[in-house]
Amino acid sequence: MKLLLLILTSLFCTGAFAQEAPQTSISLQQRLQQVKYNSSDSAEIVSLLKDGKSSTLYFANYFIGRPYVAHTLEGNDPEQLVVNTRQLDCTTFTETVVALTLCVINGKHTFADYCEVLQKLRYRQGIIDGYSSRIHYFSDWIEDNTKMGFVNEKQKYVAPFTAIQQLKLNYMSLHPNAYDALKAHPEYIKEIAKQEHAMTGKHYRYIPKNQVKNTAALRAVVKDGDIIAITSKKKGLDIAHLGFAVWKNDGLHLLNASQIHKKVVLEPMTMGQYLSKHPSHTGIRIIRINQN
User: Fold this and answer.
1) What pLDDT, in 10s, does the model give residues 11-29?
2) Mean pLDDT of 216-236
3) What's the CA gap between 35 and 114, in Å, rounded?
């Protein structure tokens, strides 16, 4: 581990975070303290980046069978960047795959490069400033990472994008006891509520679940490797689940870190069948990684 820290230190010094001019006063030791990982995480990331493959589904398929574990980002006080490839939930699985994809697209092959990209994906404008700087609602994640130039959402005004989601976010601020950080720091609730208010009222077009079928229209707008965000009608929330699009002969499937299967899987049922089994799911939004 000491050798790994020395290597990581060298990488940080040679410019992995050079873009973050506003944080130049932060010492190297402080930067390293903001990354929580173990040697198997860093070794796996470096090995994957050295493969040199930039396909989103290459990275997503690599993690099939990896255990599903919720809340792996919690319990860090003060807030740290967590790198955990050993245990994944739907959000950390998505962020891990997107970060790997972006690294290879942009010719970045070190663990420090990966940490930089992951931090930019996970935290508002890439800056860690406490629990509330982590992006907690996926609609907010999409907007922030669109501004960062990492992704773009497909928002067509024709079929199959025939439904509109109007946000009314308040779940976290109304249920603080469901979040360890908010229980420990009730002063965070005000900032979370402010973020919810900023997103409330925004509209997004999505594909309703009755149109998620094996059709030419759906195949034309959803591509292999797109991020699928499942819209929810649960009060106070926007997105219920995440994964990646995989087309098979029988239709669209979801490659995801599944709470049901307790691991990363390619769902055997089609996306349409999957949605029909969840009454609170209303449809899907489609987000594509920018290939530059």
Assistant:
1) 433 333 333 334 444 543 4
2) 98
3) 11
> Which is nearest to 137 in space by CA: 59, 72, 232?
232
* Residue 84 and residue 37 in contact, taking contact as beta carbons nearer than 8 Å: yes
**0.85 cut: is pTM over it?**
yes
pLDDT, tens digit, 9 for 90 and up, residues 128-152:
999 999 999 999 999 999 999 999 9
Helices 39-50 & 90-105 angle (0-180, nearest 10): 40
DSSP letter at 136? -
Phi, psi of 282, rounded to the nearest 5 degrees:
-105, -20
In the structure encoding, which two tokens stand for residue 26, read together? Answer: 């932060």
Helix axes 111-122, 2-11, angle to 10 degrees: 70
User: What are the Cα distances from residue 61, in Å, to 80, 150, 232, 244?
Assistant: 27, 21, 26, 10
CA distances from 26 to 21, 118, 128 (A): 10, 19, 12
CA separation for the pair 146, 97 (Å, rounded): 17
Alpha helices in 135-281 (DSSP H): 138-147, 171-174, 180-184, 188-199, 216-221, 271-276
